[in-house]
Structure formats: C-alpha cells, structure tokens
Amino acid sequence: MSGGHDEHGHHHREPESVLSLRVRALESLLVEKKLVSSEAVDRIVSAYEQDIGPHNGAKVVARAWVDPAYRARLLADGSAAIEELGFGGVDLQVVENTPGVHNMVVCAKSASTCPRTPRFESGTRAPSFATSYSRSARSEPSG
Amino acid sequence: VNGIHDMGGMHGFGRVEREENEPVFHARWEGRVLGMTRACSVQHIFNIDESRHAIERMAPADYLASSYYERWLDRNIRLLVEKGVITREELERRMAQLAGGTDPATPHSDPKLTARMLRVTKDRTPYRQPGPPPCFALGDRVLTRHDAPVGHTRLPRYARGKPGVIVHVHGTFIFPDTNAHGQGEQPHALYSVRFDAARLWGDSAEPRAPVHIDLWERYLLPDAPARSTS
Predict the structure, then answer these.
(1) Nearest residue to B82 (alpha-carbon basis) of B59, B51, B113
(2) Chain A residues inside the 8 Å CB shell of B27
(3) How many other C-beta atoms are found inside a 10 Å radius of the C-beta of residue B174?
(4) Which of residues 55-114 of B touch A (CB under 8 A)?
(5) pLDDT 10s digits, A22-51
(6) What is the four-CA torsion angle of A131, A135, A140, B3, rounded to 10 degrees?
(7) In chain B, beta strands by DSSP E
(8) What's the pTM?
C-alpha cells in the first residue's frame, strides 16, 4: 500500500488516486442513501487512530504484571477482565507464556479472515503475553 | 473447494514485515472504508460471516495482489451491489461526478448511528448466543471432518481429517458456515482443539509445537477408539 511495505512481487495495483476516488464515491452514495454520515465515519477513524490500538493491550498486560488477582481473572475470563478497564468489543481468551510454553497467536487462515481488526494484541515484545499475526508463521516466522 | 484465502501453512509470501511506528491507516481512504463497513454492519446490511465470505470470493489473483483494506473495499462494493443497495454503474457515475468536482450528496448528521457504530468497540460481541449443550468434553479425542465445502467455513484446509484433543470449551457461538449464507445463526458449541504439529505438517514439523484451533462442533467427529492410542 502507500506505506510501501506490501510491494514485493505485487503488480497491477490500482493507483492510489483511483482507489481514493472509488472510496469517496462509495461514501457519497451511502451518505445520499442515508446509510452513513461522514461525521460518523470521522468519529470511527478518530477512535481507531487515538483510542484503540496496541497501547490498550499494553495497559491490560501492565495491570496483570502488578496485580496478581487481576492476572488470575484475566487468564480465567479475558473478556470480563478487560471490561474492568473499560475495554470491550472482542471475545478474548488470554494465554500466558511460561519458561516451557511460548504462545504464538496467528490467524487460522489468512489476514483478511482474521477474527477482527487486531485491537488488543500487545505485540511479541511484551514479555508475558505474546501474540503475533502471520500469514505463514510456520515456514517464515517473523523476526 | 479450496479458496485462495485458506493459506495457512503455505509459503513463498516473504517475511512478515514490521513497520516502525506503523500508522493505523496508511492512506485516508482506508479509514473511510473501515467506517463505512462499521455502518453497514451495525445496520445489519451484512453480517461478519457474509463479509468474510465475500472476501473469499475475490478472484484469486486479485486477492493476492490486494492490500488488507483493498479487500475490504472490494467486499463492501460486492455485497452492497448483491444486496441491491447500489449498482456498479451508479458507483462509476459517482466517481466521474466527483472527478469533475461535483458531489451530489447532501451532508447530514446522524448521532444515533454514530453512537451505535462507536459502541461496537466497547460492548460484548453478539457472537455468543444460547445453543444446545456441547457433545464433547475436555480431553475428548476428536477427528475433524474431511470436507471441502463450497461456501464459508472456519475449518482450515490444513486441519481437515486430522485427530485432535478438546482442550477448552468456549461455549455456544453463532455458526459462521450457515450465518454466511442466510441459513441462520445456528449457535452451537465452539471448542479449542489441540493438534500435534506432526499430524498437520508431517515429518518436517517443528517438534513440541502443538497447534490450537477454535472449531465448531459440526466440524468434529468422535475419534475412533483404534486411533486414540496414537
């Protein structure tokens, strides 16, 4: 995409301008049909850019580090435990790495059939709760 | 059938690249696509399983050449056309109008819709629904069905016809295979099933690396006693 990270070997991509125009046209049609308002889209974009993201997962993990009771609740019922911190929107099962077990969370199939847009994954750098999205973790693990 | 999206275990796509300080959206249009998708889903224009299946129906070459949000855009247009909300001609006309500097749509405000769209990130998901009690229990040995259904399924290709063990009973959840095709939600038991890597990948599998996959009960058969010693 425009970030330049997806360009190896791919070809015949639509120019950004055509994509952008198509998206604007779709939004215009949906606004006209009263199925969306541009303001609502603005609010969602802003929520994802500012409020939702790996930093929320980091808050959950940090709390589990310092609060053993919370850690136990998080491992027992992830969805309920993140609600305590004001988070939601996912059915969450939390797993913990131990000296003998390293968990790697991947999509069973592909990036586009992921359960949801990743919201709470805290990244593989978090020492206790490792998650990683990978298209082919088995043969080409990420660094 | 085996869709192009069902790529677990395939190789040749290169390393997973990490981008320092990766932005949430790499271009403005990506965020607009996400917002429109959310509007469609909260108004029940399409459900999540229909939407995944729509992406799976992309032409394989297009699928592989598209970015994440390009697939979402393709999906949104495909479903909105199929459901009669828009036509492709209408979309082309609107693109031409916008390119010419005219936007016929009148902006409006819809606070109720906005609130519904924002609530999705706070509320519990609607996917857990009451259903029949589970037939399997922790520790039960199961065999996944060996089937390649034409429609949507959450049983990956690499895990068909494989023996595994029930390690967690999640509860009863909406069944994607029917919900994707207008055949109802049919909630029933969802399990975490553990598979030995060697049974999935063969002799070259990484040792001591079991794979856990969330699978619905209808993907599973009781394992024959003769296999249970393996």
Answers:
(1) B51
(2) 1-2, 16, 19-20
(3) 22
(4) 55-56, 63-73, 76-77, 80, 85-86, 90-91, 94-95, 97-99, 103-110, 113-114
(5) 999 999 999 999 999 999 999 999 999 999
(6) 150
(7) 141-144, 163-173, 188-195, 211-216, 220-222
(8) 0.85
